[in-house]
Design a protein that fits this description.
With about 140 residues, the protein is an alpha/beta fold. It has 4 helices and 4 strands, in the order βαβαβαβα. It has a single domain, classed as Response regulator (Rossmann fold). It starts with a strand and ends with a helix.
Length: about 140
């Protein structure tokens, strides 16, 4: 299996950016991977970049972008990774499958730097497991 996947979040700065990088790595060349936001922040969160580097993935060149850019494009799979994006997500009639995978927003984590980074790592690892499980279940 493979195809085009669009991962949506509100700000397109943390969860969807990490998911884009992880899906690109885990799905390989079989997938075209994009992420976008319903209200893009305009940057990729520095802590998301940091925790992805810890596992050997560089997402520093990814961009925060609006889902408007993708409205008229066909996708095999559209995934929302936060509840707000799901509520404001337009219908993608060309999508073969639409999924909702809500993850907590690590950008709202509080505490020491160590605790905040731990929150980012936890979400990163939850996203990676969910993508791995999906890909394993949908291999041809």
């Amino acid at each position: 299996m493979g195809g085009r996947v669009l991962i949506l979040c509100t700000g397109n700065s943390c969860r969807s950016q990490m998911a884009e990088g992880l899906w690109r790595q885990l799905g390989g060349k079989a997938w075209e991977v994009y992420s976008a936001g319903s209200n893009p922040a305009g940057y990729v969160h520095p802590r998301a970049i940091e925790v992805m580097r810890e596992i050997g993935l560089d997402i520093s060149r990814q961009e925060s972008k609006s889902l408007d850019r993708f409205r008229d494009e066909p996708f095999d799979l559209v995934i929302t990774v936060c509840d707000r994006a799901r509520e404001s997500c337009p219908v993608f009639p060309g999508a073969r499958e639409t999924l909702h995978w809500p993850f907590p927003d690590p950008a709202h984590a509080t505490g020491s730097e160590t605790e905040v980074l731990a929150a980012f790592r936890t979400v990163r690892d939850q996203i990676a497991k969910t993508i791995r499980d999906y890909l394993a279940a949908h291999e041809a």
